[in-house]
Protein: Kinesin-like protein
Organism: Cyprinus carpio
Amino acid sequence: MSSQASPVKVFIRIRPTASFAHELIECPPDQSRKDSNKGKRNNQLSSWVFQLNGVLDNVSQEDTYDRVARSVVLGAFAGYNGTIMCFGQTGAGKTYTMTGAAETYKHRGIIPRALQEVFQEVEHRADHTFSVHLSFLEIYNETMVDLLSSIKKEKSLNSGVLTVIEEPGGGVSVKGLSLHLVHNEEEALNLLFEGEMNRIIGQHALNKHSSRSHCIFTIHIESRSRTLSDAKYITSKLNLVDLAGSERLGKTGSEGQVQMEAMYINKSLSFLEQVILALADSRREHVPFRQSKLTHALKDSLGGNCNTVLVANIYGEAAQIEETLSTLRFATRMKCVQTKPSINEHVDPVLQVRRLEKEIQFLKEELSMCNTLTNRVGVSNEILSERQVEEVRSQVQRYLSGLLDEIPIVSITQIQEVFAQFKKVVLYKLMSRASLTVLQVQGSVGAVGEVESCGYGLGLAKSSQKHQRNVSPKPSKARKDKQIILLLRTRLNINVKLNVFLSSPPPKTEAFEDFKAERGSEINRILKENKAVLSERTTQLRILTDVINTTKRDLDYITYELRQFRERKQGQFVSAEGEPVLEEAELSLVMQLKELKNRYRQTYEDFRSTKTEVSYCQHLVNQCRTRLLTEFERWYNESFLFPGDVLSVLETGPVRPGHIPVDKALTLVSNIQGCQVFTTQPAQLLLTTSPIVTASFYNAYNRTLKRVRHLHTPDTSFHYSALK
């Protein structure tokens, strides 16, 4: 089994018959299939050659299993997925090939023999431990049914309607389908026979026990090594597929419910052929897997991560030559499909954690032994305690002051703590230099003169009378503008640098999770509830859409059948009153058409109502999401960044005269990055307040200013123009 792309293997099995059409069908030694009648008839080709992997003519069940299925089953123990599929006309021997005759042990089919092979391999491979689970899925009239749901000891993934879901690795699984753990061949065969009894069968002219549904019997295998201690394990699954046979109503003579079942069977097989055509064409970008439940459930078996084998069952009689040709054409297309099998290897997270814990413990012991050999007894590599951290801090201080010549190296954690203490010292020096620079700028601007506002100024006390006498005449407005702009730029630049060194804000992704858990928990809860309702309504809308599409297709089909029936009818019966009388078949079609129309109208009304609900729920979700993001941005800016007015100054660049009021500009200068200095504290700069407290203070002060301006006359506002 290779992980590279490989074509699907195709075998032909001919149903044994006494009237084999040797004049029409030849089986050359090269295992190809050939329909004769060479030449042309009515300008149409009358001879075809089909190159396949093998022809099974008058072959026993055992030989069929050896040639078709054995390599796929053994590949599952190496971690490769496998699929064996039987396709063909109704009554051609698909179920016999896949399941066999339960009455005779010799006539067992592929599934019982595969189960026997699986448990024989489990016994022989003593160096591995295996777990085997089984599932049995039936697709009847585009409805998926769990054939083992009657067993109480099932491992059900979910209860309710069965749905096909996409897996992260590209595969598919059926949600709600029960998985049953089996320990031996007998338990597995019991489940197989239980599911076979629950299958739906019918009767028509070509087959007295015709399967009316597609069935997928899946064997899930998980293998773990007993000898290796790693956390890796492999999984695989074997899909053994018994497809319902294609039917021609003219030959089967099906009526009523059997006819309806035949319609669904032919439609799903038609969708399967469309998928095969798309997979065989390398230019096709889209493959319509979702057109039917069958193709969606077999998505990874058709051109995916799987070793796939097709057994095409055909008749050997001349009367069935057209259906035989159709089956052979399908088999030839299937042979052009490329699959990409690969080993399904996984890592058990629990065992991985245990392995890493053992490795850590081993490394600790090895390090302890190394310390002992190098006479470093008593050295610990654990996290330092508070007492040890204080001791390291004391050593760094004595080293910097010259009282200690060198710091002894004890352990890696001690070295890390030494560097951390050095970093704190450097940051403290930088902060002190920045404070001194700000004080110098304050003093130079304070010498301009006294500036009065609403109680807050440059951070300097009012000059004494003696100082005022020595000050030159009051400077002009332009000079004051220049001094204030210089001060703003200098202070802003200093505080921006300090912000980089002292309080770098956390990433928004981490802050957003904290916000949702604390301050925004209520909005987040409402958003989650609205999302849940939206998801429920969207799922309901999708289901209604599928029902409408299915009903529409059925309507078109019944309408077409009714039109064909009326065209074939020679005349029309009338009653004694002269009213037309419908035949039984025509009446049945008319009643079906009426029922489908009523169903379509009702479903469409439900669809419109649900679509309105989905739109409204989407609107609520968008509102909640917008509010959550808006509140988060406000909270993030208040908690970690500069106040809004300072950010606007930083973003716009130079401060233009008249751009902001002087009182607010000066207040900003004294409040950036926790620097709060009042007029009653001359020549003192406080850098101990955190940015969060500063932001709260700044916001409260702004609200107070607004209230004061609202209660008093506009003359109390001190704008830049007041400095004339």
